[in-house]
Design a protein that fits this description.
Layout (H helix, E strand, L loop, with lengths): L1 H15 L7 H32 L6 H26 L5 H30 L4 H21 L4 H20 L4 H56 L1 E2 L4 E2 L1 H18 L3 E9 L1 H8 L1 H16 L6 E7 L2 E7 L4 H16 L2 E3 L2 E3 L2 E9 L6 H18 L4 E3 L2 H19 L2 H4 E10 L4 E13 L3 E3 L1 H10 L3 H16 L7 E5 L2 H5 L1 H14 L6 E6 H5 L2 H13 L3 E7 L5 H7 L4 E4 L12 H16 L2 E4 L5 H9 L4 E2 L8 E2 L3 H8 L17
Parallel strand pairs: 8-9, 11-13, 13-14, 14-15, 15-16, 16-17, 17-18
Antiparallel strand pairs: 1-2, 3-5, 3-8, 4-5, 6-7, 10-11, 10-18, 10-19, 11-12
Helix pairs in contact: 2-3, 2-4, 2-5, 3-4, 4-5, 4-6, 5-6, 5-7, 6-7, 9-10, 13-15, 16-18
């Protein structure tokens, strides 16, 4: 038990002399403090030792007043120079710890050397000189302890090798004054040690607290950096997000302006992506976006920045592009990357992409201008060159300005007075009769004249006037149908906004009930594009119409990604084969097969089938041979005003074609 207790006490004592080898930061802080204080200590020690030697020069041997002091002062000066040099260097943790060990060792050795030298001088001279030795030793050791207090081991070692011998030596002289000085020195040393130990604890605690504070600051900074990264990152695609894109765009425009360079802003929109969502679910769509993001990331370099803006739309910034050829080359790379099939679950899905580009400074100087023009180029590309890259041009600028005039005119238009409906017949070529008319929107602007539906319908959707437009057109359509023979029905097109707007659907149902037209004679046509915006809402709207007895037709069949999916999910009564299959039916190898397959599909599902876009006798004979009997197209009749419908029905009886060339701009005032 006594042995264990002794070992424990010894361990505690040795702990006071331990260096912070496991705490490099504390060691470095101690070294930093010492590098400012030890040079001062050596200067004081040199001066004090020189003065003590001078006071004994005539009473003590030259060995003690010249030789020994010279050796001590040379050693002290060398250490002073060494500390001045080392204090200005950047040391490693190991070097710092080595300096601290050397300081402790030299503190002990120099303390012993100066103590022995001082005791040797004590025996020479009178009582005043002896008192000077005692005073020198006491004051100097106090200075040493205070200068070394940040290095506890060195301060304690100096105290031990100086104060203990000092107390014993002077207490043993028997001189009351010297004995009192010894006792006083011992008490002062105890006080200094207590203060020094507390100071060391406070110093250590301060360093620890500072380290923890810095650690927390680092964690906070890391968290802040991570939050900033996440705030500018799209987690699904691992690409920068919309916020980061616009910040980068502003910076890129500023750089392009400074260096006089061209800058391309591009918008990439995936083709057929919504079809993947509807066929395989949103999870599959997310996986597809992840793969697309990884592919697009391969294109990123110092001059190419790509971000996901939302949905299936991506933003691109191409810096320092002196020629359009470089932009088209980039578009070719994007096309190649996107056309390669993507793995979606256990299936392969293929998507393409359309890109619209606006160039700084030709298309604009501001980020908003460039973005809007790139968006228009994208829209133009998806309408006319899907899967390609379109650069915004002066022609597009002219169209935008005209579109702005048209939009302004449409906002201010008296829709009830200016909108009217044209009707194009659908003919049963077997029975040689008109079975229905498709209602086609027309606008005869009092300000601009006739404007086609391909222009004003997108404007109506963009300016949130589609509901009113549909209400006016449907009212005029149903009013016309009341005067038709009972065997002739009407087909009316619904837009995406119509299908997802509950209030619009309520107005449509109310208009049907109040029209006096049997619902069975009314047919609403929907396109895949309209269904893609929000299929669940669209399906609910279609179900509500079908429940009233209204017929539902899927328009432009065969052009979309998931047309068969809609045949399965929706309560359809009719399918309309898109005109794109008819335009080359005489020359293409695949179009006749596709038409024949769709006709067979309709027969098996007991759905009516209509072929659109028949314009020549040859096309009519070909589609008839493929089994098509319900035909629509310019060969049979162009769209006509409502007041011509009854006459056309009677003229058409027993005939196959009536080549009317009527003015379709609208009835004359």
């Amino acid at each position: 038990m006594n042995a264990l207790s002794s070992t424990s006490w010894l361990g505690r004592i040795l702990a006071f002399f331990a260096l912070p080898s496991e705490d490099p930061e504390l060691a470095r802080s101690q070294f930093s403090a010492l590098s400012r204080q030890i040079p001062l200590l050596y200067v004081i020690l040199i001066i004090d030792a020189s003065l003590l030697a001078a006071t004994h020069f005539h009473s003590a041997p030259h060995l003690l007043t010249l030789s020994v002091p010279t050796l001590l002062l040379v050693a002290t000066s060398a250490r002073l120079i060494a500390w001045i040099r080392v204090g200005s260097r950047q040391l490693s943790d190991a070097q710092v710890l080595a300096q601290l060990r050397l300081t402790v060792l030299l503190a002990g050795l120099m303390g012993i050397a100066f103590t022995i030298w001082s005791f040797s001088l004590f025996h020479y001279g009178d009582k005043m000189q002896q008192g000077g030795v005692a005073f020198y030793m006491g004051i100097t050791v106090v200075c040493c302890v205070f200068c070394l207090m940040h290095l506890r081991a060195a301060a304690l070692l100096v105290t031990m090798v100086v104060v203990i011998p000092f107390t014993i030596f002077f207490a043993g002289t028997g001189e009351p004054v010297l004995v009192a000085m010894a006792i006083n020195m011992l008490l002062v040393s105890v006080g200094m040690i207590v203060v020094m130990l507390r100071n060391h604890e406070d110093f250590t605690a301060l360093i620890t607290s500072r380290r923890e504070l810095m650690h927390r600051q680092q964690e906070t900074q890391l968290l802040s950096d991570e939050n900033l990264r996440l705030a500018n990152l799209d987690p699904l695609s691992s690409l920068p997000n919309r916020r980061r894109f616009f910040a980068e765009l502003q910076e890129s425009i500023a750089n392009a302006e400074r260096h006089g360079q061209r800058l391309a802003v591009g918008l990439l929109d995936l083709d057929r992506f919504k079809g993947v969502n509807d066929l395989h679910g949103h999870a599959a769509g997310d996986r597809l976006l992840t793969q697309v993001g990884l592919r697009l990331k391969r294109l990123v370099n110092d001059n190419i920045f790509i971000a996901r803006l939302g949905g299936d739309e991506f933003g691109v910034i191409l810096t320092n592009v002196p020629t359009d050829e470089e932009i088209f080359a980039f578009g070719a790379k994007v096309k190649a990357l996107l056309e390669a099939p993507c793995v979606v679950g256990d299936r392969l899905a293929s998507v393409g992409g359309s890109v619209g580009v606006a160039i700084y400074p030709e298309a604009g100087y501001l980020a908003e201008e460039l973005f809007e023009r790139a968006d228009y180029a994208l829209y133009h590309g998806k309408q006319n060159a899907r899967g390609g890259l379109v650069i915004f041009s002066n022609e597009h600028e002219t169209v935008i300005r005209h579109s702005g005039r048209v939009e302004q005119a449409f906002r201010l238009a008296d829709l009830e007075a200016e909108l009217w409906v044209a009707f194009q017949p659908i003919v049963d070529i077997v029975e040689h009769r008109i079975i229905a008319f498709e209602a086609l929107a027309r606008w005869n602007s009092h300000e601009l004249g006739p404007i086609g539906p391909d222009v004003f319908i997108p404007i109506a959707e963009r300016v949130q006037m589609m509901s009113l437009t549909t209400e006016v057109l449907l009212g005029k359509t149903l009013a016309a149908v009341r005067h038709w023979p009972e065997g002739v029905s009407v087909c009316f097109n619904l837009s995406a906004q119509d299908l997802i707007a509950d209030e619009t659907m309520r107005k449509i149902r109310r208009a049907i009930l109040n029209s006096g037209v049997p619902p069975a004679r009314i047919e609403f046509e929907v396109t895949e594009t309209a269904l893609l915006q929000d299929f669940e809402l669209a399906e609910r709207a279609i179900d509500s119409l079908h429940a009233m007895g209204v017929r539902i037709s899927l328009d432009d069949f065969g052009t979309g990604f998931s047309s068969l999916s809609y045949v399965h999910k929706l309560p359809l009564d009719k399918i309309k084969i898109d005109r794109s299959f008819v335009s080359d039916v005489d020359t293409s190898r695949t179009s006749p097969s596709i038409i024949k397959t769709i006709v067979a599909l309709c027969a098996n599902l007991k759905l009516d089938c209509v072929v659109e876009g028949v314009e020549t006798e040859s096309q009519l004979r070909t589609v008839a041979a493929l089994g098509c009997r319900n035909i629509q197209g310019y060969l049979l009749s162009r769209p006509i005003p409502a007041d011509m419908v009854t006459r056309l029905i009677h003229q058409f009886a027993g005939r196959i074609a009536v080549p009317y060339q009527l003015d379709v701009a609208g009835p004359s005032d």
